[in-house]
Each structure stands twice: as structure tokens, then as C-alpha cells.
Specification:
CATH architecture of the largest domain: Orthogonal Bundle
Distance between the termini: 59 Å
CATH topology of the largest domain: Tetracycline Repressor, domain 2
Strand content: under 5%
Radius of gyration: 20 Å
Number of helices: 11
CATH superfamily of the largest domain: Tetracycline Repressor, domain 2
CATH class of the largest domain: Mainly Alpha
Helix content: 55-70%
Length: 228
């Protein structure tokens, strides 16, 4: 009798076919975008009848959720690896952002799936929350390990914003005070905004290629959040 840790041939076959379905779906994302993703088209490319595919993914939204989770986990993993290098916090910050950009450029359609426009009619379930938090937690870990000294004080968060960031800190289990977490959110929006502008062609005719601009912005945001 097989041990409890051994997968059966049927389980392995199911896992392999599930992966094939997701691989085909990712190719569809590149061709028609998330809005055009179709279970029927995926089944047709795999030579399956639609009813067979529905045993793996009951709806398009179930498939989208799996693709979203995979994408968040993929960029989260590269961020965590970058955060784990033996270096000072500022260097780790820089490595995380460059790793995230490298992943985004290698997987632009998956990046667009998680950081692009919302998909009409799709509501992400709570299953996506933990994977979506991985990059943020890697950055929080860097800031938690540093003696933060922001380049300038700037305005204090309003009472409402302070409550929002305190609630967020509690959900992330972060020890950062509200002003520090607010700065991190600003830097997060700034740097992912730069990545998005690059991928979606907004820098053509200005700072394209964007390597030097991204490196400069990453360092500016390190100053902004207080990494000296």
C-alpha cells in the first residue's frame, strides 16, 4: 500500500493536466487579454470537450483566480529571494524592486493580470489576499529591520489615513508606525507605477529605455521611506 506522502498516478495526471490548462490560459492572456479568456477556447486548444475541462475549473472566474494566485506567488517569490540576500536594508530594498521589474518584463501579461485594469465582472476571492501580500511583506521586512530616517518629514497622515494604515499594519502583522507605512504605500504606488508605465509604453519618447530612470526612482524612494 502506498504511503500517505505518495501521490497516485491519477493525482499526478490531474496535476499535469491542470498545469497544461493554466499554460494554455496564459497564452490566451497574451493573445486576447483577461477579458477574452474563454474556457471553451482553452478546451479546444487542448483537444478536450468543454464539459471535461469544467471538472478542473467550474468557471472562467475559477481559472482566473488560479492564474492570479500563481502570478502573485511568482512575483512574491522573487521579491522574497531578493529580500533574503546578505546585505544592508537599502540594498535589499533595491534588489526587491529590480527583481520585481525583471519578473514583470519577463511576464508582462501576468503582470497586467494582477496590476493592470480590473476585469469587468470579476471579483477576486479572499484566496488571493495572502499571495497578493507577499511583495508588500518583503518590503515591510526590510523597513522593519532598518533605523528609518526619512529624507524629509513631510505632512503627517490625517487621522483617517492613520487609522487605515494602522489597520493595514495589523493585518500585515507589521511593527511599522503609521507614517512609515504611509510612506511605504506611496513608494509602492510610485515604483509599481513606473513598472506599469514602462510595460504599457508610456515612457516611449521620454526615458525609454527605462533602466536608469527606474534605478534612480528606486534610490529616491529609498530616501523617501527613510533607508539611509
Amino acid at each position: 500500500m502506498a504511503g500517505t506522502g505518495t501521490r497516485t498516478a491519477r493525482e499526478r495526471a490531474r496535476d499535469e493536466l491542470t498545469q497544461e490548462i493554466k499554460d494554455v490560459a496564459r497564452r490566451q492572456l497574451a493573445e486576447v487579454g483577461a477579458n477574452g479568456l474563454s474556457l471553451r477556447a482553452v478546451a479546444r486548444e487542448l483537444g478536450m470537450v468543454s464539459s471535461a475541462l469544467y471538472r478542473y475549473f467550474p468557471s472562467r472566474d475559477h481559472l482566473l483566480t488560479e492564474l492570479i494566485i500563481d502570478a502573485y506567488n511568482a512575483i512574491g517569490e522573487v521579491a522574497e529571494k531578493a529580500a533574503a540576500i546578505d546585505a544592508d536594508p537599502r540594498q535589499r530594498w533595491r534588489h526587491i524592486w529590480h527583481a520585481a521589474r525583471t519578473w514583470a518584463k519577463a511576464h508582462p501579461h501576468e503582470y497586467a493580470l494582477i496590476y493592470g485594469s480590473p476585469i469587468p465582472g470579476y471579483q477576486a476571492p479572499r484566496d488571493t489576499v495572502a499571495p497578493a501580500s507577499r511583495v508588500a511583506l518583503a518590503l515591510v521586512g526590510v523597513l522593519d529591520s532598518a533605523a528609518l530616517r526619512p529624507a524629509f518629514e513631510g505632512p503627517k497622515p490625517s487621522a483617517k489615513l492613520a487609522r487605515q494604515t494602522e489597520d493595514l499594519a495589523a493585518r500585515l502583522e507589521a511593527d511599522l508606525p503609521a507614517p512609515a507605512l504611509t510612506r511605504l504605500l506611496i513608494a509602492w504606488a510610485q515604483l509599481f507605477g513606473v513598472i506599469s508605465f514602462e510595460l504599457f509604453g508610456q515612457f516611449v519618447g521620454s526615458v525609454d529605455p527605462t533602466d536608469e530612470f527606474f534605478a534612480h526612482t528606486t534610490q529616491q524612494m529609498a530616501d523617501f521611506v527613510g533607508l539611509r
